[in-house]
Amino acid sequence: MRNLCRLLVAAMLIAPVVAFAVDDKVNINTADKYKLEKELKGVNRKVAENIVDFRDRHGSFAEVEQLEQVEGIGYDTLNINRENIVVD
Q: Which of 2, 16, 36, 75 is the most buried (most CB within 10 A)?
């Protein structure tokens, strides 16, 4: 019983950390240009606008790798940010 209580307390302490980590991700299908510029490394205002324009013209991103098709996003910029991007 004592071990069960410790496990429950540990789970309650870890849950907010896991939830916070998920919230840190940038959804490139819904983020506006300000969030993209603020949250993605190597993305300035113009590149953030290019991402939004690309999305408006071509529809939602199906996978993160499609970002390389956006003017101003290269292999290095994509890889620096890969862990921080989602395409829900």
A: 36
| CA-based nearest residue to 28, from 54, 9, 46 | 54
CA torsion sign, 47 to 71 to 24 to 59? positive
pLDDT per residue as tens digits for the range 4-31: 556 555 556 665 544 444 568 999 999 9
CATH of segment(s) 25-86: 1.10.150.280
Q: Where are the domains of the chain?
A: 25-86
Q: End-to-end distance of the chain based on CA atoms, in angstroms?
A: 40
The predicted structure's pLDDT at residue 48: 98
